[in-house]
Amino acid sequence: MKTPSPQPSPAGGRGSVKPWMQTLRLELREFTRADFDELLRLDSDPRVMKYINGGKPSSKKDIEAALGRVARYYRSWYGLGVWHATRRDTGAFIGWYCLKYCPPTCDVEVGYRLLRQAWGQGFATEGATELVRYGFDDLGLDKIIGVTHPGNRASQRVLMKAGLDDAGYARRYYGRRLRLFVGHRDARQVSAA
Fold it and tell me: What is residue 54's predicted lDDT score, i.e. its pLDDT?
């Protein structure tokens, strides 16, 4: 795995953005405004949005606002963010991964959203697992969480494969009752020994 080192946001478009992290099959980099159409395509799919935003696709205005928030995140929180993901073999956009604060708490959340074409191929697990490793080993985080809609069994399996434990239900994340998954650096070190 390529050791990540967060890069400052480029002034140019997508072509000038270097990968921030690489796994065996994935390349992650910072989002730019040039990624608008890809993000709109992702968030316009009702199956992708089934457990997000009440199943309602994001509007163009929502996407524009999200890209602005993401750009500010890179500058505000060293090492955390939301990253554009492509396949290394084809360069095709497949979605995004994140390691970011989960409002309104100080908990750091691992997350992802992938195009349907990327489902069922292990990409979610591969990216989430690498971000959990990065969060503990490179950033020195003590705890990482993941939250899912109670009915989203596929994402629950991904979070457990990424090393998080099912902690039951939580009521405080995103103002909704969600399934909570938690990983601790100490527990990970013990299991590795």
Answer: 79
Please give the structure tokens belonging to residue 170: 């939580």
- CATH code of residue 114: 3.40.630.30
Whose tokens are 């929502």? That residue is 62
H-helix segments, 10-92: 36-43, 60-76
In a domain, 1, yes or no: no
Higher-pLDDT residue of 168, 192: 168
Look at residue 177 and tell me if it is in a domain.
Answer: yes
72 within domain boundaries:
yes
* Percent of the chain whose pLDDT exceeds 90: 73
Q: At what angle do helices 123-133 and 153-161 cross, to 10 degrees?
A: 40
Q: Are 40 and 31 in contact (CB under 8 A)?
A: no
Instruction: Report how many domains make up the chain.
Output: 1
Q: Which domain holds residue 172?
A: 14-192
Q: Are 118 and 155 in contact (CB under 8 A)?
A: no
Rg (the chain; Cα; Å): 16
Q: Is residue 4 part of a domain?
A: no
pLDDT band at 16 (very low <50, low <70, confident <90, very high): low
What's the rounded Cα separation, in Å, for the pair 53 and 184? Answer: 28
